[in-house]
Each structure stands twice: as structure tokens, then as C-alpha cells.
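INTERNAL AUDIT FORM
Audit reference: QA-55
Scope: verify that the stored structure record matches its stored sequence.
Auditor: D.O.
Record contents follow.
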Amino acid sequence: MSLQGAAADLPPEFARLHGSRVLIAGSGISGRALIEPLRELGADVTVTDGNQASLDELAAASGVAVVAPDRAAAEIGAFALVVTSPGWRPDAPVLSAAAGAGVPIWGDVEFTWRLDRAQVYGPARRWLVVTGTNGKTTTTSMLESILRAAGIATVACGNIGLPIVDALRADSPRNEVLAVELSSFQLHWAPSVRPTAGVILNIAEDHLDWHGGMKGYIDAKAQVLTGDVAVLGLDDPVTAGLSRVSSAGRTTGFRLGVPAPGELGVDGDRLVDRAFADDETLALVDEITPPGPAGRMDALAAAALARSIGVGATAVREGLRSYQVGPHRAALVAEADGVTYIDDSKATNPHAARSSLLAHPRVVWVAGGLLKGASVDELVTEVADRLVGAVLLGRDAMQIAQALARHAPQVPVVRVDAGDDAGVSPAPSPESPDAVMARAVRAAASMARPGDTVLLAPAAASLDMFTDYGHRGRSFAQAVAEVAGRSR
């Protein structure tokens, strides 16, 4: 879809970009999605990134000007606006230079929100926003399924993969309601966003290094509580406490127990709505995928957002029944010699790993990666009695090993480091991530006995070794296939 109307008809904040230089910080998916909209506004676009190979490839593919971060910081006064990708921290030199020079900084979500409010791509859409430490992608996908069951033109976008600006520009069909997943990074850089309805699923330690502590992380999440309707996960004490800071026109919540009037929850075998109806059944518990408490909470959150804009109970039930869980989310990989292998690579923090570990009575835990400032002591204490072994890899493996030594000293622990094979040269070359994972799975299989579960629930991010959590999950599945093949 092209811009609606002439440049002269645009709001001043966009009209001033015509003929001006705009810097995009980040050459990844979200950064690249900004290039054409900015060009349509008449801006002279430049992209910066610390990955020179990515910049070179982008310049060749799109003809856009590119610049290294140090030069961008030195020339920051030449730009009228910086639009940053979400992963860029406020203290990044380019962004610090922009702030010091008085150059406006918008996140990619902020830029897109302003485009939508200005009706640059037609009448403004309704944004239903999902955030939280865990369950965002599942909830957003469930919401998309419900809205489609209701006959509403929609798409899941944002942190789930599709840039929101691409969802705005699509016109076959035009998306009237956006199911938007937003991370704390995206919300930090999007202070103007006021969603039609927003939900915070839960809040646990995550990205504390980026936000400078828990307060900054919570404050970013609370940005979704500024629209017409705010929804809170009431079983999480931190999240439930945010009702006092909500500025939404209406604040409600959901819980796994029987809901009070004004809430959604579970009553016997039913998911029920007592917030947007007196007592309406939305679905049956055994119809929810994935099964278990986490799946039910995500379903209630998605249902609450849909109900807030008038979606009927029948569409909610149909959408939830037709939803299929995505890959790397507690996915069964194989069963071999009586041992079950589960890929929950999406469990990228301790809170997410907890749900996965508690679903199995006897677990060989495959964990490790980037903890991002989070502590695993509480998690290890809670799950210690079901751990029959732990295999640790990645940069922060030692922190998890130390927590296990403190709180579960009876659990055998194997650390798998790149290049640590004994009997090779004195300075072995680092192994590929897939080779490290293969050794980790072999070690886990040797610990497991019939009836046990070998569970990849890393409790940490993947980027120290792998391209992303999907790469990590695929690597695990490939290693499991080799182990299972040999056992047969």
C-alpha cells in the first residue's frame, strides 16, 4: 500500500522528513522494513550497524547509504531523526550522541504507531498488544486465531516476526486489527503507543542488563496499560500489582482459579468470562493447546483482548480449538529406549524454564546460554527434586552449575564447552554450536533411564552460540535424531 495523499498533507512530524537525512540504527528485519516507508516520505535514508557484512549486503541489495556506528555518531547532527531497532540500548554510542545533540530518537514501533495514527496508510487500526516475560508468542498467535475465527482481517506482528509497518502496508487484505507482540525493548522505545487493549501476562527477571534493573524492565512493560483496556495476569503478584499504575479506561485480569466478577478465569473444566459478560463459557480446558497451566493462561489472555473489542464466545472457542502450538515450545522430538526428548528452546529465561521443568517428574535438564542478568537460584530450588541430571552449555553455564551446587548438590552435572575434548591438541579449535549440542545430548542420554525426560529448557538466551532459539532447537532435534538412530 502506498502513502495516502500528498506529502504536503502529512502531519508536520512527517512532512519535515521530506528531503532530510534519517538514520536507521540496525540492519536486521525491523531496520530493513523501515527503508521503503521512509523513502516514501521523501527522506534521505542511511543505515548503521556494527555488522559491516550486513551493511554491505544491504547496500548492494537496496542501494541505501550505509555508515559504521562510529562515523554515524560523529556526524549525528546531520540527521533530522534516528529510528532505532529494538535491540539497541539507550547507552549505545550512536543513540547517546543523538540524545546529546537533541536529535529525536524513535523506535521502529514508535515510528509505525505515529504513521498509523496519522492515517498515512489509511484509517488507523486497532492494536491489541501482548507483552510479558513468557508466553507472548503463544498468546499473540492464539489471538490471531481467535480474530480470524471471528471474520476479522488481522495478522500477528511485532516481536513475533512480521514488522508492524509491513502489516500496515499490506492491502491484500487490509488488516483492520493488529495482534501485536511487543518486547520490553520495543516498548522502551515506543512511549506514544496507546493500544486499544493491552495485556501483561507475567513479569520475571529478564533483560535486566539492558534495562539497568527490574524497575526499568517493569516500567517498559507497563506502557501497554495506557489504552482503552488493560488486562493483567492476576496469578503473578508483580503483574497484579500494576493495576495501581494502569491509566487505561478499564482494567481487568485473568487467573487460573475461579474468577471474581470483572475477571476471566477457570471454573471447573471451563474457561469463563465474568469481565465482558456475566458468566460466559469461552472454551473447555481440555480443548486448549498446549495443555497445562501456561497454555490456559495464554488462552485466557488472548480471549480477554478479543472480548474487549466485542468478539463473541463462539469465535473465541473456535479460534482456541484451531490453534496449533509453534515449534520449539515444549515440542516432542522423539522417544527412544523409554526416554522422551522435549525441545523447549523458547524457554529463554528461568521463568519460562520453570513451567517446562514442572511438567515432568524426572528430568535430565539441558540448559545454558545468556542469562541476561537473571538469577536461577530460585528455579533450581523449586525443581531440584525432579532433576536426575543436568547438562550445561553456553556462556553462563557456570552460573547455573553454581546454583545447582548450592541448592541441588545431589544432581550430577556435566558442562559441555566448545573445544574441550580431551586428548586433542593443547589448543583445540572451537567447535561448531551443532557439535557442542550433539555432545550435550549424548551426555544427557547417558544419564537418562526409561521413564525420564531429556528436556531442552535453557533458561537463557541463545545468541552466545546459536543464530536464535530456533537454531538451538533444531540443533537439539538433530542431535536427538542421531542418538535415537543409534539406539535403534
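Auditor finding: record pair retrieved intact. The chain has a mean pLDDT of 91.
Action required: none
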